[in-house]
């Protein structure tokens, strides 16, 4: 918090006027960078889930340090809420709770993993191919978990 205050040119205690501590600051940063994960309440989960994974992938690419924060700490409350909503939607469509949780874990792991690999291959000419590969892989995973209807 002191380094943040120093970089902002404010007193060491000023950030505490806005955040109770480092954990709240980091949670807020993650939440802000990810933005809203909601793709639209009126869409079926088969469309909401891949849209959310795509937005997560894009946010992680825009904010390179975000992946470390996502992996290191607890999820921001809106991520937990969105996860619960998606699981409930999948259950309402006939998927069992454990199956829905596993499906969401697989999709999240795919998204995070591909983002890590993208960092290692950071050539502008391959960005389009990486995105096409991401989209194909996501569609294939959705087919596997029963998301393509």
Descriptive notes:
The protein is mainly α and 149 residues long. It folds into two domains: 1-34, no CATH class; 35-144, Orthogonal Bundle (Tetracycline Repressor, domain 2), CATH 1.10.357.10. It is 71% helix and 0% strand. The protein has seven helices and no strands. The protein is globular. The protein starts with a helix and ends in a 5-residue tail after the last helix. The model has no long low-confidence stretch (mean pLDDT 81).
Features:
mainly alpha; 149 residues; 7 helices; Tetracycline Repressor, domain 2
Break the fold down into its secondary structure elements and pairings.
Blueprint: H1 2-8, H2 22-34, H3 45-62, H4 66-72, H5 77-92, H6 97-120, H7 124-144
Describe the structure concisely for a colleague.
The chain has two domains: 34 residues, no CATH class; 110 residues, Tetracycline Repressor, domain 2. Helix content is 71%, strand content 0%. It contains seven helices and no strands.
Q: What is the CATH topology classification name of the largest domain?
A: Tetracycline Repressor, domain 2
The main sheet comes to:
none
Mean pLDDT: 81
CATH architect. name of the largest domain = Orthogonal Bundle
* Content of β-strand: under 5%
Number of strands: 0
The arrangement of helices and strands along the chain is HHHHHHH
The low-confidence parts are none
Which outline best applies? Answer: globular
Query: Percent range for helical residues?
Result: over 70%
What is the count of structural domains? 2
Contiguous helical run count: 7
């Amino acid at each position: 918090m002191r380094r943040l205050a120093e970089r902002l040119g404010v007193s060491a205690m000023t950030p505490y006027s806005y955040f109770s501590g480092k954990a709240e600051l980091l949670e807020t940063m993650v939440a802000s960078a990810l933005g809203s994960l909601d793709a639209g309440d009126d869409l079926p989960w088969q469309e909401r889930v891949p849209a959310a994974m795509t937005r997560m992938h894009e946010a992680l690419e825009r904010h390179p340090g975000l992946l470390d924060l996502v992996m290191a700490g607890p999820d921001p409350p809106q991520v937990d809420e969105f996860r619960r909503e998606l699981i409930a939607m999948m259950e309402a469509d006939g998927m069992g709770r454990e199956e829905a949780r596993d499906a969401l874990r697989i999709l999240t792991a795919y998204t995070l993993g591909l983002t890590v690999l993208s960092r290692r291959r950071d050539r502008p000419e391959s960005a389009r191919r990486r995105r096409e590969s991401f989209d194909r892989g996501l569609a294939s995973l959705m087919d596997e978990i029963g998301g393509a209807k």
